[in-house]
Amino acid sequence: MKSTVRRSLTTAALVAACMTGAAAAAGAVPEDPPQSGDQLATAYPGNVVTCVEAGLAGGAISVTATVGDTYITVTAVPAGTTVTGIVVKGGPAYNTYLPTGLGALPWSNLHPPLVPSGNPAGISHWFACGQQQTTTTTTASTTKTTTATTTATGTTTTPPTKTTTTTSATTTTGTSTAVTTETTTAASTTTTTATGSDSLAYTGFSGGWLAALAAALLIGGVGLVLVPKLLAHRRR
After folding, report:
1. pTM for this entry
2. CB of 127 within 8 A of CB of 96?
3. Each residue of 55-83: pLDDT tens digit?
4. Is 119 inside a domain boundary?
5. Exposed, middle or buried by CB within 10 Å (0-12, 13-18, 19+), for 131?
6. Cβ atoms of residues 169 and 210 within 8 Å
7. What start and end residues bound the annotated signal peptide (predicted)?
8. Containing domain of residue 98, as a range?
9. 57 domain-assigned
10. Which helix (H) or strand (E) is 224 found in, with range?
11. Is the dihedral of CA 18, 24, 29, 34 positive or negative?
Protein backbone atom coordinates (compact mmCIF):
# COMPACT_ATOMS: atom_id res chain seq x y z
CA MET A 1 0.00 0.00 0.00
CA LYS A 2 2.75 2.41 0.94
CA SER A 3 4.56 1.56 -2.27
CA THR A 4 1.48 2.42 -4.31
CA VAL A 5 1.13 5.84 -2.67
CA ARG A 6 4.78 6.63 -3.22
CA ARG A 7 4.47 5.70 -6.89
CA SER A 8 1.44 8.00 -7.29
CA LEU A 9 3.23 10.97 -5.70
CA THR A 10 6.28 10.43 -7.84
CA THR A 11 4.15 10.28 -10.97
CA ALA A 12 2.31 13.52 -10.09
CA ALA A 13 5.59 15.29 -9.45
CA LEU A 14 6.91 14.18 -12.82
CA VAL A 15 3.78 15.35 -14.60
CA ALA A 16 3.94 18.74 -12.92
CA ALA A 17 7.59 19.10 -13.78
CA CYS A 18 6.87 18.20 -17.40
CA MET A 19 4.06 20.76 -17.63
CA THR A 20 6.23 23.47 -16.10
CA GLY A 21 9.04 22.69 -18.49
CA ALA A 22 6.68 22.72 -21.47
CA ALA A 23 5.22 26.06 -20.44
CA ALA A 24 8.69 27.54 -20.06
CA ALA A 25 9.74 26.20 -23.43
CA ALA A 26 6.65 27.69 -25.08
CA GLY A 27 7.39 31.13 -23.60
CA ALA A 28 4.20 31.36 -21.61
CA VAL A 29 3.29 34.87 -20.39
CA PRO A 30 3.47 35.31 -16.63
CA GLU A 31 0.17 35.72 -14.94
CA ASP A 32 1.19 38.99 -13.27
CA PRO A 33 0.77 42.06 -15.54
CA PRO A 34 4.05 43.53 -16.83
CA GLN A 35 5.49 46.61 -15.18
CA SER A 36 6.59 49.45 -17.48
CA GLY A 37 9.20 50.79 -15.07
CA ASP A 38 8.57 54.30 -16.56
CA GLN A 39 5.68 56.61 -15.75
CA LEU A 40 5.77 57.88 -19.35
CA ALA A 41 5.16 54.39 -20.80
CA THR A 42 2.37 51.82 -20.78
CA ALA A 43 3.36 48.12 -20.63
CA TYR A 44 1.51 45.41 -22.56
CA PRO A 45 2.11 41.66 -22.49
CA GLY A 46 3.06 39.77 -25.62
CA ASN A 47 4.75 40.90 -28.77
CA VAL A 48 3.93 43.32 -31.63
CA VAL A 49 5.85 44.17 -34.79
CA THR A 50 3.56 46.69 -36.58
CA CYS A 51 1.83 49.98 -35.74
CA VAL A 52 -1.56 48.37 -36.39
CA GLU A 53 -0.84 45.60 -33.86
CA ALA A 54 0.27 48.23 -31.33
CA GLY A 55 -2.93 50.25 -31.93
CA LEU A 56 -1.03 53.31 -33.19
CA ALA A 57 -2.09 55.53 -36.11
CA GLY A 58 0.02 55.80 -39.24
CA GLY A 59 2.88 53.52 -40.19
CA ALA A 60 6.48 52.84 -39.26
CA ILE A 61 8.77 55.87 -39.74
CA SER A 62 12.50 56.44 -39.53
CA VAL A 63 13.72 58.59 -36.63
CA THR A 64 17.17 59.63 -35.48
CA ALA A 65 18.05 57.77 -32.26
CA THR A 66 20.86 56.40 -30.14
CA VAL A 67 20.18 52.75 -29.25
CA GLY A 68 21.91 50.70 -26.54
CA ASP A 69 21.23 47.27 -25.06
CA THR A 70 18.52 48.57 -22.77
CA TYR A 71 17.85 52.26 -23.49
CA ILE A 72 16.95 54.40 -26.53
CA THR A 73 17.27 58.17 -26.96
CA VAL A 74 15.37 59.74 -29.88
CA THR A 75 16.90 63.04 -31.03
CA ALA A 76 15.01 63.94 -34.23
CA VAL A 77 11.97 63.04 -36.35
CA PRO A 78 11.37 63.67 -40.09
CA ALA A 79 10.10 67.10 -41.03
CA GLY A 80 6.38 67.23 -41.72
CA THR A 81 5.75 64.03 -39.75
CA THR A 82 3.70 63.61 -36.60
CA VAL A 83 4.88 60.80 -34.30
CA THR A 84 1.98 58.76 -32.91
CA GLY A 85 4.00 56.45 -30.65
CA ILE A 86 7.21 54.47 -29.99
CA VAL A 87 7.22 50.78 -29.12
CA VAL A 88 10.16 49.18 -27.23
CA LYS A 89 10.00 45.37 -26.90
CA GLY A 90 12.02 43.28 -24.45
CA GLY A 91 11.32 40.04 -22.52
CA PRO A 92 7.68 38.86 -22.54
CA ALA A 93 6.18 42.35 -22.91
CA TYR A 94 6.62 45.77 -24.59
CA ASN A 95 6.35 49.45 -23.60
CA THR A 96 4.42 52.00 -25.66
CA TYR A 97 5.45 55.66 -25.40
CA LEU A 98 3.04 58.36 -26.61
CA PRO A 99 4.38 61.77 -27.75
CA THR A 100 1.88 63.61 -25.55
CA GLY A 101 3.76 62.34 -22.51
CA LEU A 102 7.27 62.66 -23.93
CA GLY A 103 7.21 66.42 -24.52
CA ALA A 104 9.95 68.10 -26.55
CA LEU A 105 12.91 66.30 -28.10
CA PRO A 106 15.16 64.61 -27.22
CA TRP A 107 13.24 61.66 -25.76
CA SER A 108 15.74 59.94 -23.51
CA ASN A 109 16.00 56.55 -21.75
CA LEU A 110 13.12 54.75 -23.46
CA HIS A 111 13.23 51.04 -22.51
CA PRO A 112 11.22 47.76 -22.37
CA PRO A 113 9.12 46.69 -19.34
CA LEU A 114 10.78 45.36 -16.19
CA VAL A 115 11.79 41.75 -15.63
CA PRO A 116 11.37 39.94 -12.23
CA SER A 117 14.74 41.30 -11.10
CA GLY A 118 13.24 44.82 -11.17
CA ASN A 119 15.41 46.07 -14.06
CA PRO A 120 14.34 46.84 -17.65
CA ALA A 121 14.63 43.88 -20.00
CA GLY A 122 17.11 43.99 -22.83
CA ILE A 123 15.80 45.45 -26.12
CA SER A 124 14.76 42.78 -28.60
CA HIS A 125 13.35 45.26 -31.16
CA TRP A 126 11.70 48.67 -31.32
CA PHE A 127 9.95 50.89 -33.88
CA ALA A 128 8.37 54.35 -34.21
CA CYS A 129 4.96 55.08 -35.73
CA GLY A 130 3.79 58.32 -37.34
CA GLN A 131 1.92 59.98 -40.17
CA GLN A 132 2.39 62.92 -42.51
CA GLN A 133 1.12 66.27 -41.31
CA THR A 134 -1.79 67.77 -43.19
CA THR A 135 -1.22 71.39 -44.10
CA THR A 136 -4.16 73.61 -44.95
CA THR A 137 -3.33 76.73 -46.90
CA THR A 138 -5.81 79.58 -46.81
CA THR A 139 -5.40 82.33 -49.34
CA ALA A 140 -7.17 85.60 -48.66
CA SER A 141 -7.67 87.75 -51.70
CA THR A 142 -9.03 91.24 -51.41
CA THR A 143 -9.79 93.25 -54.51
CA LYS A 144 -10.75 96.88 -54.19
CA THR A 145 -11.78 98.71 -57.31
CA THR A 146 -12.51 102.39 -57.21
CA THR A 147 -13.82 104.10 -60.33
CA ALA A 148 -14.25 107.83 -60.36
CA THR A 149 -15.97 109.27 -63.40
CA THR A 150 -16.41 113.01 -63.84
CA THR A 151 -18.34 114.29 -66.83
CA ALA A 152 -18.35 117.99 -67.58
CA THR A 153 -20.90 119.12 -70.12
CA GLY A 154 -20.69 122.64 -71.43
CA THR A 155 -23.47 124.27 -73.37
CA THR A 156 -22.67 127.09 -75.75
CA THR A 157 -25.56 129.31 -76.57
CA THR A 158 -25.44 131.13 -79.84
CA PRO A 159 -26.99 134.59 -79.53
CA PRO A 160 -29.74 135.50 -81.98
CA THR A 161 -28.49 136.47 -85.41
CA LYS A 162 -30.04 139.49 -86.99
CA THR A 163 -29.75 139.82 -90.75
CA THR A 164 -30.85 143.02 -92.49
CA THR A 165 -31.15 143.19 -96.26
CA THR A 166 -31.91 146.49 -97.97
CA THR A 167 -32.99 146.64 -101.57
CA SER A 168 -33.21 149.96 -103.47
CA ALA A 169 -34.92 150.55 -106.81
CA THR A 170 -34.85 153.85 -108.76
CA THR A 171 -37.47 154.85 -111.32
CA THR A 172 -37.56 157.68 -113.90
CA THR A 173 -40.12 159.53 -111.89
CA GLY A 174 -37.47 160.36 -109.30
CA THR A 175 -39.06 158.22 -106.62
CA SER A 176 -36.73 156.01 -104.61
CA THR A 177 -38.25 152.97 -102.94
CA ALA A 178 -36.33 151.27 -100.13
CA VAL A 179 -37.35 147.80 -99.13
CA THR A 180 -35.94 146.51 -95.84
CA THR A 181 -36.24 142.91 -94.81
CA GLU A 182 -35.32 142.03 -91.24
CA THR A 183 -34.80 138.39 -90.25
CA THR A 184 -34.16 137.32 -86.68
CA THR A 185 -32.94 133.81 -85.85
CA ALA A 186 -33.82 132.59 -82.38
CA ALA A 187 -31.05 131.51 -79.97
CA SER A 188 -30.00 127.88 -80.28
CA THR A 189 -27.71 125.56 -78.33
CA THR A 190 -26.46 123.97 -81.53
CA THR A 191 -24.12 125.28 -84.15
CA THR A 192 -25.87 127.61 -86.55
CA THR A 193 -24.48 128.27 -90.01
CA ALA A 194 -25.55 131.55 -91.55
CA THR A 195 -25.66 131.69 -95.33
CA GLY A 196 -25.60 135.11 -97.00
CA SER A 197 -26.92 136.02 -100.44
CA ASP A 198 -25.85 138.91 -102.72
CA SER A 199 -29.12 138.82 -104.69
CA LEU A 200 -31.60 141.66 -104.25
CA ALA A 201 -34.91 140.87 -102.70
CA TYR A 202 -37.68 140.26 -105.23
CA THR A 203 -40.55 142.72 -104.71
CA GLY A 204 -42.83 141.46 -107.49
CA PHE A 205 -42.38 144.76 -109.53
CA SER A 206 -40.52 144.86 -112.87
CA GLY A 207 -39.33 148.42 -113.90
CA GLY A 208 -37.69 147.57 -117.25
CA TRP A 209 -40.38 149.22 -119.47
CA LEU A 210 -40.35 152.33 -117.31
CA ALA A 211 -36.63 152.73 -117.89
CA ALA A 212 -37.16 152.49 -121.67
CA LEU A 213 -39.97 155.02 -121.52
CA ALA A 214 -37.89 157.42 -119.47
CA ALA A 215 -35.07 157.19 -121.98
CA ALA A 216 -37.46 157.91 -124.86
CA LEU A 217 -38.97 160.90 -123.11
CA LEU A 218 -35.51 162.22 -122.28
CA ILE A 219 -34.46 161.98 -125.88
CA GLY A 220 -37.70 163.56 -127.00
CA GLY A 221 -37.28 166.44 -124.57
CA VAL A 222 -33.75 167.07 -125.74
CA GLY A 223 -34.99 167.09 -129.34
CA LEU A 224 -37.69 169.62 -128.55
CA VAL A 225 -35.10 171.92 -127.01
CA LEU A 226 -32.46 171.60 -129.72
CA VAL A 227 -34.65 171.65 -132.87
CA PRO A 228 -36.02 175.24 -132.44
CA LYS A 229 -32.55 176.52 -131.71
CA LEU A 230 -31.13 174.94 -134.86
CA LEU A 231 -33.90 176.37 -137.00
CA ALA A 232 -33.42 179.85 -135.57
CA HIS A 233 -29.71 179.65 -136.18
CA ARG A 234 -30.17 178.75 -139.87
CA ARG A 235 -32.52 181.59 -140.43
CA ARG A 236 -29.94 184.04 -139.39
Report:
1. 0.47
2. no
3. 999 999 999 999 999 999 999 999 999 99
4. yes
5. middle
6. no
7. 1-24
8. 35-134
9. yes
10. helix 208-235
11. positive
